[in-house]
Amino acid sequence: MQITLNHGSGGRVSHKLISELFLKYFQNNVLSELTDSAILGFFDGKIAFTTDSYVVDPIFFPGGNIGKLAICGTVNDLSVAGAVPKFLSVAVILEEGLPYDELETIISTMSQEALKAGVTIVTGDTKVVPKGKGDKIYITTSGIGILDPKFTDISYGVRVKPGDKLIINGNMGDHAIAILAARESLRFETSVISDCAALNHMIQKILEICPQVSFMRDITRGGLATVANELAEKTKLGIRIYEENIPLHPSTMGICEIFGFDPLFLANEGKILIVAPSQYANDIVNIMKDFPEGENASVIGEVVDEHPSQVILQTLSGGKRLLEMPSGIQLPRIC
Amino acid sequence: MQITLNHGSGGRVSHKLISELFLKYFQNNVLSELTDSAILGFFDGKIAFTTDSYVVDPIFFPGGNIGKLAICGTVNDLSVAGAVPKFLSVAVILEEGLPYDELETIISTMSQEALKAGVTIVTGDTKVVPKGKGDKIYITTSGIGILDPKFTDISYGVRVKPGDKLIINGNMGDHAIAILAARESLRFETSVISDCAALNHMIQKILEICPQVSFMRDITRGGLATVANELAEKTKLGIRIYEENIPLHPSTMGICEIFGFDPLFLANEGKILIVAPSQYANDIVNIMKDFPEGENASVIGEVVDEHPSQVILQTLSGGKRLLEMPSGIQLPRIC
Question: A120 and chain B: CB distance < 8 Å anywhere?
């Protein structure tokens, strides 16, 4: 069975798809009301609100699929704001001809990932576009999280000061390499799998033990180079990164050489940068290592007074180079 | 200038697009922080949360464009839940090659419509897909509204009882006819323009004067027939609709005959169904008529004890027929 334009009609065929697929897998009392808006409450305080569209190609890859990405990405965006992710919306744009069982696998994965992350999918939308006007499935998730008043300023960068350490929870570039290897056009063998994962439980543990964290950001499109440059620009401070401290999968270096990629520019989907006062850096690394998503956690650099708004990489060979924000793209449709 | 894959890279070219287009038009303090999540507050009570993807073809049509649709549709979904729309997210999936000035027109329209509706665009995302993997632009908006405790049960249908009147705020099918007329393949002349409009101010006025409203729903994909059937199924009551009371643009009937369409199945983008106790029906019609979006408002039917879960149409010719929910689609990509 395949998705047809009728599945996006709003009529009886749409309703059947919604009740037999989305309601079945995402089941909860809010969604099953099928109202135009989900009614949520009771809120008391500030909330975090985020959205992302996912257009990854291919939709299935080693370590996950587009559905996993759509849940984890939005959960992580809320988590790095210091919020506890609570509610998600899911809007899908399906291409006519998408096999029903592929859609079912994706929706089933989303349901499992939402359960693991402790979020509820409370509202959604389904559109179908004709063949050749999409690419199997695009998913947009939006999320709402509850923000502890302690952390409302954490995403603004205002807590960051010279001497703070930069910590990441593992290998750079695994997601991009896994996607690259899965592309129809150049399929190659590698043991690298996508790091796609919801990091909210790890992040909440870190904030619980170490509420002094200065800044957090997930390292996705544009890689570590982009996140570090955004931080340098935001804070007008310098960032120093030690190449030797950056964890890489053994295969990544070789694959990057072949394709002319720099792992610091590659996308991740289960990695965050945490900036924290120096005395907490080891604690944070240790908490990360307690989670499978943090087993290769490492302190990779520090915030400095010198070279304001710039990121300097201390290279393996002992040199120094300016790590600029990538201007364009190494690999399109990575997420 | 055209959109390229680099605009979706997350790197410097993406940042330029975001700051020179999105931040320029959507300008506000929350969005300009460029954090992964928007930080919103202070909330105290329940909220409504909704999402919709817009894939309309063509993206420009008489009466609006896809950007206007994406703001108004989501504002209306929140409003019919009894909520006051406050915050929107905007996620765009751009097709490589989209002319920059078309994108700018759409974003500018979104900014104007958000201003009129009194909502703030606080977070967003931009993805670019290769040529032939999308269709110019798809937009997903999600929205958060504040819900007055008085109205938390309004979207569930639990207030509806026999004797309640059904009221609509004007012509059925204008949006679908306008889209049809604008389609490349069959372009024809008509004076019908899309009814696309944010109805939140009108709805808030109605709720203020008449908080006894039993139920509201916007009449979009699938038309009045779909909304009436959803209501009948939800309440297990009968719905009776009088064909002679349904306002239509003079051209609509003729166009429907040519294409074999039924105006009760056609999509609208600025129409709501309101169900209210009989004694308030005229007041509601009068409030509607005070707004340009309600000038053809009309009481079109009632809720009855007979034929539970079914919608019966009292036809112009004096007969009765079962008005079923459409199974499939009359016109794909209408919204």
Answer: no
